[in-house]
């Protein structure tokens, strides 16, 4: 889902999105920072109320307060708070990244997302399936193979039009190089729609990246404020 450290030549800043773009290859000879999965306890948040609050911080309260909230438990994600607006807020862990990402096993990653109804039903299920595979002890190669198979066989739903999510949490930890990066929105579209959105062009606020493992183009638009209304960091460098 989220990837990071991708330089878009049409823009003047580095994009640290967790779920979308292929990870940059580590320097030749450099030791992989997270070669294997850490003990499960390192991925869990002991205080469930704290995880609920972090998940809800992905979007403004008007959206996240009536949303369903899922939390990670030892046997997978479970609904901790029922919602009424069709949104689902969740703190994704590192395996939301592409399987070739150097931080796929990082226990530090905390990426609050709040998916709208369309994404909750058709995009979030990919991450939930990956979570089940990870907790079952599968390798990265096995996670990719199983996810690919599920998509090809239609065991995972086709991406619905209008699928998007909020990532406006001030306490986001997207990677070791990008903790509280920028508040932003992400839009998920099947196929290659970069040109039709005018993405990655000089002056365009729309950033796009290919997400081949999840068979989508992901568009990102940076927001000016965090979910609590405080100003986000400047994009000028």
What features would you describe in this structure?
The protein is of the alpha+beta class and 237 residues long. Helix content is 20%, strand content 21%. The strands form 2 sheets. The protein has an 8-stranded mixed β-sheet with strand order 4-3-5-6-7-8-10-9, sandwiched between helices. A two-stranded antiparallel sheet has the order 1-2. A hairpin with a 4-residue loop joins strand 9 and strand 10. Helix 4 packs across helix 5. The two termini are 26 Å apart. The N terminus is likely disordered.
Features:
237 residues; alpha+beta; 8-stranded mixed beta sheet; two-stranded antiparallel sheet; 10 strands; 20% helix; 21% strand; globular; disordered N terminus
Summarize the structure.
This protein has 6 helices and 10 strands, in the order ββααββββαααββαββ.
Number of helical runs? Answer: 6
> What distance lies between the first and last C-alpha atoms, to the nearest angstrom?
26 Å
Query: How would you state the average pLDDT, rounded?
Result: 88
Give the % helix.
10-25%
> What is the beta-strand fraction?
15-25%
Largest sheet: 8 strands, mixed
**Topology as a string of helices (H) and strands (E):** EEHHEEEEHHHEEHEE
Coarse structural class: alpha+beta
Walk across the major sheet and give the strand order.
4-3-5-6-7-8-10-9
Principal-axis shape = globular
- What's the β-strand tally? 10
Q: Radius of gyration, Cα only, in angstroms?
A: 17 Å
What low-confidence regions span 5 or more consecutive residues with pLDDT below 50? Answer: 3-28
